[in-house]
Design a protein that fits this description.
heterodimer; A: alpha/beta; Spore Coat Polysaccharide Biosynthesis Protein SpsA, Chain A; UDP N-Acetylglucosamine Acyltransferase, domain 1; Serine Threonine Protein Phosphatase 5, Tetratricopeptide repeat; nine-stranded mixed β-sheet; seven-stranded mixed β-sheet; 36 strands; elongated; B: alpha/beta; 2 domains; six-stranded parallel β-sheet; 12 helices; 23% helix; cytoplasm (chain A); Translation initiation factor eIF2B subunit epsilon (chain A); guanyl-nucleotide exchange factor activity (chain A)
């Protein structure tokens, strides 16, 4: 047995370095897609080796002597891969398995781990690699143990050190950043102790002042650093997870520990400033990882050396004596065959024997797997072609990952997509951004697939698909033995499925299932349908029957940690729009989504800049108010209108004090409308209320001296009359009547300061052409009629108001008649 | 064409001596006025030394300052700023003497004819290495570079604890929070504690731009800025009166979020009125007026950002009694480093003990069996026999009678100490007399009428 070397001797003498890998993302969208491919995400191929290989390589390089794999689904595949791989031969005791079939979250997994008693020793720190457990890095991680030890030495309560990598450019533009990595961290600049941690989006993060004023504390903020999903943990972490059943994710844990002041435990952080780090936990990062490996960013971990490590005993693979599990899994068996990888310039890798046409154009960063056929006129760029693939003439493939046994016809264009095992693509097919073709899918001739589609085939392989394959032989000349091979593989896979009792696909459902193929989507001669997720789309009912059987386990998961992980789809995009945002993110958004997000932010900032013109503090308060009030959207209608009215009053007040431009105020008011979901009438009513109640509710100018009327006049002069004019046109009868009715209501409610002033108010409005006399007279007439017919009752205290009103109307009528006289 | 215009603000009254004819800038430190150190600082960097030097002063102190400066071999221009606001508009609640820096700058604004401006106040004390700051300003094409100082909680050099002489005045510095990005040296926000309630808010959009920032609480502003003209234009047109407390935080905020600075300009009318002087060296007024043209703010020029440099050496601002004492203690070494002059007292006198770290001015008259340690003595002082003076500052024309013990005290000019007095930790204001055999500890002797105001906190000019 060869022990890993290149680690300092003290460590070896003292203790074993352990790393725990949690091989599941716990994201239902990712898992759903993964279930339609042949392999778990951690075993997805990059350059002919699975992702997990790179992680294990890194760990062995770092001197880790014990790797514990926590598996949930696909334990069979992972187990059989590892036991048959070079790893178990070289280091028989290196890798241990803990199967957590029941686990629904990281917390559950760690509880299972705790019960296994693999980590007993009190000082047995371990590395925890969560979020699919596949971290690609070219740094050695053993120094993390030392860092954690030092943290513990300085602070006994330290139980965990989280590892981050600084992003060197703006996070939104950074390719390693996906929405699900959004984080805000507040830590001490010197000790790196974590003080606050949040994954929720917020416009303003707050730091308590008393923390800032503590001596020897310099607060540092880390915003959207790359979360390596890596942590050095003291064994206590497992106990805490066990004791707190509500800690599902790492986020719950960190937040819980930071908030829990009783136990006083602390969490530290470590920020890498250099080195390659990429935690692969969604499909976008999987693609990036693949291309980064081809571009040799992970040097010294490059395809030809990684491959060579597995070259030592290729004969054993053929020898069936050693593996305890039957190796009839065709998908995994790929990994157990070794072929020499030759590395050419422009980062072109060729695995073993390949057929490469002279007229093909292999540009750069391309990996071509064993026995693949590249015909003439093919253009390849930044792509991986698996084993036994055939690429037809004049096909162009860019930034795509093509697994094994894939046949692609002529004149196809494939961009930024993942194509899984046994897929057949006929001629003239165009596949755009971020499509995934799961195994056994057939895409018909002349089909154009739009962006971000996930195509799955029915699970059972029918004779029809075999017939299809034979048909394709006419189109693409191909050695006949290849066909046999691939079809036999399919068959074997289907038998495997029926054998596996713990498979996610129940036997009965696969028997009953008929081939439902969406011919609109994949063409008449295609096979497959779009994968539709139950929880994202409303119109999924019919499609859901099919995904249902896969989803049995996951359904309950949805409710548990939906908020946390499942807010992001398999590509790492945020599914739900961010709350408190005006911009709507449509669900089938695409790559420009993050840009939108950018824009929305800049938009917001410009909004704020209007506010920040003068009173900085007030604008912030207003923001708070807006936020808080928009949170209460669910509260009942009356409150909403009330709140809306208050909001308008605040806006007007600010506008008055800061002497804002009328246009700006109107824009602002218009923007408030959708936030509160008020009807147009309610909106107008609120405006009127706000205008006349503003001087009453807010003491704008010297409250002692001025009367209500004086203040009102001031505000009217400056802003209010323009606002009213804008919303209640003098020519529009209904608007004018509404204005008068509302004014009437206000006056009756506040007889004392407002009602008694009706004369001045109406006069002012009349003089400034806000209200036309025509409507006043009409409205008054109606009102008088109502009073006469006893529909309206005049209370004694309201008399003063009505008197004044009458006085004004009389004056108005007189003035009118005088005008008439003059004209005569 | 010159690169900088240096504006040295030499206003501000000192309240140490009730003699108002002595402005703060002429307050002696090591028998040289405070402004001397600043002038040395300017001379120490070639870019600044060759620049136009504008010295702002108030009308009262203009004459004294001019008298002093004319003895030095420098070219300068004295500008008298108007003391009060022209209009007594009702919204100006400020007291008359609290004129903001921007108000003062407005009065000399027409004299600025370079693209870059170096602005500082004359209470900065210490040998600052300006090279990194100026280099940063040039390399980053910054809109503003500021010097930040580490707060020196106690600058104890000796063994004895520092006791503030005079009446105990609570001097609490208002904490400021500087959010800085240490990798690029940019300042992303300045917040005064007074503006905050319980929480320090961090805006998401600023975080997105500067993901890794540190909030420093251990820094203070040195009041030394290098500003682009385009940036100052906006400051001048804004309605703020204080540069540091009002304009600067807002400007940095606008810059950090990448927004236009124009919104800081007070009114739309002002925006249109905004005119820009061309930066040629034309002195002819007629030519100048021809060149005044409508100026629309070019955002590109303002986009440079705001940077800081931290000076780790012992630099501080002379703004309270303790820092004044400290400045005096360092005076001899400072002068040595600036001009290679050793001003410490070298003469050996019979029966008088004067330690080598003392500075004694001309025209001294020191009696026998007197001990003087770590003390700065001004011109024409008279000290009689058997005195013991430790760790004190004596300004000009002080008369100390026989057998007096002085410790950690400040004696202002023309004060007289009666014989056999014992004075500890006290301040004697100018023209004051202390009778014989008095014992003072931690007191301030001032003219009766000024009792309440006489403490030595200078106008902390914003």
């Amino acid at each position: 047995m060869v022990k890993p070397t290149n680690i300092n001797a003290d460590h070896l003498a003292e203790e074993r370095l352990t790393c725990v890998l949690v091989l599941d993302t716990f994201n239902i969208y990712t898992n759903e897609i993964v279930s339609h491919t042949s392999l778990p995400l951690c075993l997805w191929p990059v350059d002919g080796r699975p992702l997990l290989d790179y992680t294990i390589h890194t760990l062995v390089r770092s001197g880790v002597q014990e790797i514990i794999l926590l598996t949930r689904s696909h334990s069979y595949e992972i187990h059989s891969y590892i036991t048959n791989s070079e790893w178990s031969r070289t280091y028989p005791k290196l890798i241990k398995f803990v199967s957590c079939k029941e686990a629904r979250s990281l917390g559950d997994c760690l509880k299972d781990l705790e019960q296994e008693h693999l980590i007993n020793d009190k000082n047995h720190d371990f590395l925890l690699l969560h979020g699919n457990g596949t971290l690609l890095t070219n740094e050695k991680l053993d120094n993390l143990f030392t860092i954690h030890k030092e943290n513990v030495k300085k602070d006994k309560n330290c139980i965990m050190t989280l590892v981050y990598r600084q992003l060197d450019s703006n996070y939104i533009e950074h390719p390693s950043y996906t929405d699900d990595q959004y984080s805000y961290i507040m830590r001490d600049a010197n000790t790196h102790r974590l003080y606050d941690y949040s994954k929720e989006y917020s416009d303003i993060y707050e730091i308590p002042l008393d923390l800032l004023e503590k001596p020897n504390v310099a607060i540092e903020t880390l915003y959207c650093s790359l979360d390596c999903h890596l942590a050095v943990c003291s064994p206590d972490v497992l106990h805490i997870f066990k004791d707190n059943f509500d800690f599902f994710t790492m986020h719950d844990f960190v937040k819980g520990v930071l908030r829990d002041e009783v136990a006083n435990q602390t969490i530290y952080s470590y920020l890498y400033e250099k080195g390659y780090f990429l935690p692969v936990h969604n499909l976008r990062l999987y693609m990036k990882a693949t291309f980064d490996i081809l571009r040799r960013w992970l040097y010294p971990l490059v395809p030809e050396t990684i491959g060579a490590k597995h070259s030592q005993t290729p004969s054993i693979v053929a020898n069936p004596s050693s593996p305890p599990l039957k190796l009839n899994d065709s998908y995994l068996s790929i990994y157990n065959q070794w072929y020499r990888i030759t590395y050419d310039r422009h980062n072109i890798y060729k695995q073993g024997d390949i057929q490469l046409d002279r007229l093909s154009n292999i540009q750069q960063d391309v990996f071509i797997g064993y026995k693949s056929q590249i015909l003439s006129g093919v253009c390849l760029r930044s792509s991986v072609i698996g084993q036994n693939c055939t690429i037809g003439k004049n096909t162009k493939i860019e930034n795509s990952i093509i697994w094994n046994h894939v046949q692609i016809g002529e004149n196809c264009l494939i961009k930024n997509s993942i194509i899984c095992d046994n897929v057949l693509i006929r001629n003239n097919v165009q596949i755009d951004q971020q499509c995934i073709l799961c195994k056994n899918v057939i895409i018909g001739t002349n089909v154009h697939l739009n962006e971000r589609m996930t195509i799955i085939a029915s699970n059972s392989v029918t004779s029809a698909s075999v017939v299809d394959e034979i048909e394709i032989d006419d189109d693409i000349p191909m050695p006949s033995k290849n066909v046999k091979r691939s079809s036999s593989k399919q068959r074997s896979s289907s038998t495997r499925l029926s054998e596996k009792s713990f498979s996610e696909k129940s036997v009965s459902s696969s028997m009953e299932e008929t081939v439902t193929s969406n011919s609109d989507l994949v063409g008449a001669d295609g096979l497959g349908r779009e994968l539709i997720f139950a929880s994202t789309y409303d119109d999924q009912t019919k499609a859901f029957e099919l995904t249902d059987d896969d989803d049995d386990d996951d359904d309950e998961d949805d409710d548990n940690d939906k908020n946390e992980l499942n807010a992001f789809n398999a590509w790492g995009y945020r599914i739900k729009p961010i709350e408190n945002k005006d911009i709507l993110h449509d669900d089938d958004g695409d790559a420009i989504k993050s840009k939108q997000y950018c824009q929305s932010m800049s938009k917001r900032t410009t909004d704020q800049s209007i506010d920040s013109q003068t009173g900085d503090e007030t604008s912030e308060n207003d923001d708070d108010n807006k936020d808080s009030s928009s949170d209460d959207n669910s509260s009942d209608e009356g409150n909403e209108i009330n709140e809306f009215q208050q909001e308008i009053i605040r806006t007007l007040e600010r506008a008055y004090i800061q002497k804002l431009n009328i246009e700006n105020i109107i824009v602002e008011l218009n923007m408030l409308k959708p936030t509160y979901a008020v009807s147009p009438t309610e909106f107008d009513q609120s405006i009127v209320h706000a205008v006349f109640l503003l001087p009453l509710e807010r003491k704008i100018a010297n409250p002692e001296k001025t009367t209500y009327w004086n203040t009102l006049k001031l505000t009217l002069d400056q802003i209010s009359q323009f606002i009213i004019k804008n919303y209640m046109k003098i020519t529009n009868e209904s608007e004018q009547v509404l204005l008068l009715n509302e004014l009437d209501l206000i006056c009756l409610k506040y007889i004392q300061p407002i009602g008694e002033r009706i004369l001045n108010i109406l006069n002012y409005l009349y003089e400034n052409d806000v209200i036309s006399e025509q409507w006043i007279l009409l409205w008054y007439k109606n009102k008088q009629e109502k009073i006469k017919t006893n529909q309206l009752e005049v209370k004694p205290e309201e008399k003063v108001y009505y008197d004044k009103l009458q006085q004004f109307v009389e004056w108005l009528q007189n003035a009118e008649s005088e005008d008439d006289d003059d004209e005569d | 064409m010159k690169e900088f215009t240096v504006i040295l603000y030499a206003g501000g009254n000192n309240r140490l001596s009730t003699d108002l004819s002595l402005p703060k800038s002429l307050l002696p430190v090591g028998n040289r006025p405070l402004i001397w150190y600043n002038l040395q600082l300017i001379q120490s960097h070639p870019a600044l030394a060759s620049s136009v030097l504008l010295i702002l002063t108030s009308s009262q102190s203009r004459q004294v300052l001019d008298d002093y400066l004319s003895t030095l071999n420098i070219t300068y221009e004295l500008i008298v700023y108007r003391q009060h606001h022209e209009s007594t508009s009702d919204d100006q609640q400020q007291a008359q003497d609290e004129l903001g820096t921007l108000d003062i700058l407005r009065s000399c604004y027409s004299r600025i004819r370079t693209e870059s401006i170096c602005l500082f106040t004359c209470d900065l004390y210490g040998k600052v290495n300006l090279t990194p700051l100026i280099n940063m300003f040039r390399v980053r094409d910054a809109s503003l570079c500021m010097l930040l100082l580490k707060t020196t909680t106690s600058s104890t050099t000796g063994k004895e604890s520092l006791v503030q002489p005079g009446q105990k005045i609570k001097y609490t510095a208002e904490p400021e929070f500087y959010t800085v990005d240490q990798s690029t040296n940019s300042v992303t926000s300045i917040r005064l504690k007074a503006d905050l309630d319980e929480y320090f808010p961090l805006k998401q959009n600023i975080l997105a731009k500067y993901p890794r920032t540190i909030i420093r609480t251990d820094l203070v502003d040195a009041h030394l800025y290098l500003i682009k003209k385009s940036c100052l234009d906006i400051a001048i047109c804004s309605k703020y009166s204080s540069f540091r407390k009002e304009f600067l935080p807002k400007m940095i905020r606008q810059m950090a979020t990448g927004q236009s600075l124009e919104v800081l300009i007070s009114t739309t009318a002002n925006k249109k009125m905004m005119i820009r002087q061309t930066t040629t060296d034309l002195d002819d007024l007629t030519d100048l007026s021809r060149l005044l043209e409508q100026y629309d703010c070019d955002n590109k020029q303002i986009r440079g950002g705001c940077y800081y440099s931290i000076d780790e050496t012992q630099v501080f601002r002379v703004k309270n009694v303790l820092s004044y004492l400290e400045a005096n203690r360092q005076a001899s070494s400072q002068i040595l480093s600036f001009t290679n002059e050793d001003i410490t007292f070298k003469d050996r006198l019979e029966q008088i003990q004067i330690s080598p770290d003392c500075v004694v001015g001309d025209g001294h008259e020191i009696g026998k069996r007197t001990t003087i340690k770590r003390t700065i003595i001004g011109k024409n002082c008279r000290i009689e026999d058997k005195c013991k003076i430790i760790n004190c500052v004596l300004l000009d024309n002080v008369y100390v009678k026989e057998g007096v013990i002085l410790q950690n005290s400040i004696l202002c000019s023309r004060s007289t100490i009666g014989s056999k007095s014992e004075i500890l930790n006290s301040i004697i204001c100018s023209n004051q007399q202390v009778e014989g055999n008095r014992k003072l500890n931690g007191e301030t002797v001032s003219p009766a009428s000024h009792e309440s105001v006489v403490y030595m906190v200078y106008d902390d000019e914003q």
